[in-house]
Amino acid sequence: MGSDVDEAPMAYKDIHAVMAAQENLVDILDKSEPRIVRMADARERPED
Fold first, then answer.
1. Number of domains observed in the structure of the chain
2. What backbone torsions phi and psi does residue 39 show, to the nearest 5 degrees?
């Protein structure tokens, strides 16, 4: 829907690579996929 100047896509790691690197430390119990991502309005407080 949009992003703000605070949003830096290169800051996120590939979840599949992260989980593969940790496979001996974790048991995957569930997998979920976001259906929609809503970015907060710049005027909203983070805790809202």
1. 1
2. -85, 140
